[in-house]
Amino acid sequence: MTTLRNKPAYSRPLAHQTAPQVSNRGLRGAVVFLGLLCGFLVVGLIGVRVHYFLATRALATEKSNLTEERDRLNACLVKATQELKKLGMGPSNVVFSASLVTTTDWTYEGPFDTDVTLIFKRVVTNVGNGYNSNTGIFTAPTKGVYYFSFTGCVGTSGKLNAALVKNSELISAIYDTRGTYGCGSNSVTVQLEVSDTVFIRLWNRHSIFDQSRLSTFTGFLLFAV
């Protein structure tokens, strides 16, 4: 028998293999894209800075405008206040009350050789700041009708004569000759202009006493006119 030999398998030569290459056209496209992207970013940053600059300048301008408006309103307020003072339209609430001395000890004042203005030193109320505890004088801050009352107790002279005075005009008075510790009082309504003054005058050779709550001077605004 004839033995058939297996023929060796036919093998084809491998084709020549090369590394992949990137075309120049693709590289140029990538570079262009990156350039455009950077350009857009730069433009965006410039736009942000310009917007920030404009916003900052607008805020500064607005602040300046608000400052000018505030100054203008303050000037108007000052002018309006001055005009109201000219018209006598001061505080709507005016009230004061004071007693002659600040101590609870029995204290005598007078008699004096001349007439004196009594200074009521212990201030209980002074709304509107019309009363001056250093001078004993009430100065009207508002044009209107006021109510005043005052009480005095006789000191060591054995007699008391005191008057409520508006500017230099005698308005009302108290008079007591019952001896030491006797008390008298009076009250009155008075129309005042702005800066008119009201005070209590103690006549010469008369005296008064107090222990911080007996001899008093009170006044308040009833209504403005």
Automatic annotation (TrEMBL):
It is found in: Secreted. GO terms for cellular component: extracellular region. The keyword Signal applies. The chain crosses the membrane at residues 30-54. Keywords: Membrane, Secreted, Signal, Transmembrane, Transmembrane helix. This is C1q domain-containing protein. It comes from Sphaeramia orbicularis. The keyword Secreted applies.
